[in-house]
Amino acid sequence: MTQVTLSGLTKIFDQKSPPAVDNLDLEIESGKLTALLGPSGCGKTTTMKMIAGLLRPTAGDILFDGDSILSIKPEERGAVMVFQNYLLFPYMNIADNIGFGLKMRKVNKKEIRSRVQDMLDLVQLPGFEDRKPNQLSGGQQQRIALARALIVQPNVLLLDEPLSNLDAHLRDEMRVLIRRIQTEMGITTVFVTHDQEEAVVLADKVALLFDGRLQQFDAPDSFYDTPNTVDIATFFGGTNFIPGYYLDGTITTDIGVFDAPNSLVPEGDAVLSIRPEAVDLGEGGENSVSGTVLSHVYAGRYARFQIRIGDIEIEAVTEPGQVKLFADGDNIPVKFDPDKIWVLGPNTAEQPAATTG
Questions:
Q1: Structural domains in the chain plus CATH codes
Q2: Residue 303: which residues within 8 A CB-CB, separation 6 or more?
Q3: Which residues contact 246 (CB under 8 A, 6 or more apart)?
Q4: Distance between CA atoms of 165 and 171, rounded to whole angstroms?
Q5: Long-range contacts of range 314-317, CB-CB < 8 Å, 24 or more positions apart?
Q6: Tell me, what's the pLDDT at 48?
């Protein structure tokens, strides 16, 4: 197992453009699975390629267990990258594809055959050794690419958008497989994704990048419950924002005053953030206000309501049975659980009066 440390990592492709990766500090824990998450062009794949040795940093350092690897050749770093498009050799059968790395290391044929069988069992494709890549589905090719990477027993496994080319049901299968293999082998794994759900489901920790800069590095649930900024909360979606003023554990807004013990803001202009599933309908008492049901949607496992409170609209997600309790136009109590409110500082030039991110 290997700890990966990125220190001031910077990559500039064009001096006239902003850095693709800008002074990135990150400590990737040994034996854990870490996601590099962010929108297209945020620098996540560039970061991964620098770890692999496919790109050289403009500045900064990359350390494996405290030792710099910048002077070490890519093939000698012990970091193996699985690319988005698999890059299997079309003219080789599956056994030769998987064993290619061992062959280059001049491992004897008997051991290669044995380890190839072990890898096929690991990725749940026994008996596929004589097939060619074009005889496999996309999900099967992804498993073979993973086996080819793992057979050389890397210190660090790098996965570039590993599930992006798969259908929904295959993505679910591969998530389970990747998580199981990573846990069993205890290998330090970094994967790139633009999919929030994928990062949350797979990763032990998530590093969120915007414009080449690290925004938050945290456990997955923290991005939903305690994001660092409005922009981060918006990226993860589905959050109600109400601007106000925070002081001494309460936030004063245009729709009322709410107890809010959990805040990033010591005092001053702020934004009340609460997720739709934390909004309780039909409950009065402390931290409640009156709202009007504008619309509702039954979605099987849940119900979604649009509620107007004063001049703003919020969203609530409830148990599906509540569609029978409230009709459009009903005036009902709307309660914000104080422990589910998260108060942020406004970090955009024009914060909307209220919005759902």
A1: 4-220 (3.40.50.300), 240-348 (2.40.50.140)
A2: 296, 297, 317, 318, 319, 320, 321, 322, 323
A3: 252, 260, 263, 265, 267, 268, 269, 270, 343
A4: 9
A5: 314/240, 314/242, 314/276, 314/279, 314/354, 314/356, 315/238, 315/240, 315/276, 315/279, 315/356, 316/276, 316/277, 316/279, 316/280, 316/281, 317/238, 317/276, 317/277, 317/279
A6: 96
Chain segment 237-256, per-residue pLDDT in tens: 889 999 999 999 999 999 99
Q: Are 202 and 36 in contact (CB under 8 A)?
A: no
Q: 146 and 160 in contact (C-beta within 8 Å)? A: no
**29, 4 Cβ separation under 8 angstroms:** no
Sequence-distant (≥ 6) Cβ neighbours of residue 118 within 8 angstroms? none
Name, in order, each residue with C-beta under 8 angstroms of 16's C-beta and a sequence gap of 6 or more.
none
Tokens encoding 339: 């422990």
Give the C-alpha separation, 179 to 139, whole Å. 15
- Sort strands 156-160 and 188-193 into parallel, antiparallel or unpaired: parallel
Task: Give the whole-angstrom CA distance, residue 228 versus residue 127.
Answer: 49
Helix (H) or strand (E) holding 306: strand 303-309
DSSP state of 268: E
Tokens of 165: 């080319």
Average pLDDT, the chain: 91
Structure tokens at 314: 């919020």
- Report CA torsion sign: 104, 5, 32, 139: negative
Query: How many of the other CB atoms lie within 10 Å of CB of 223?
Result: 22
Place of tokens 């699975």: 33
Is the pTM for the entire model greater than 0.90? no
- What beta strand segments (E) does 188-267 contain? 188-193, 205-210, 213-218, 240-247, 250-253, 256-259
pLDDT at 168: 79
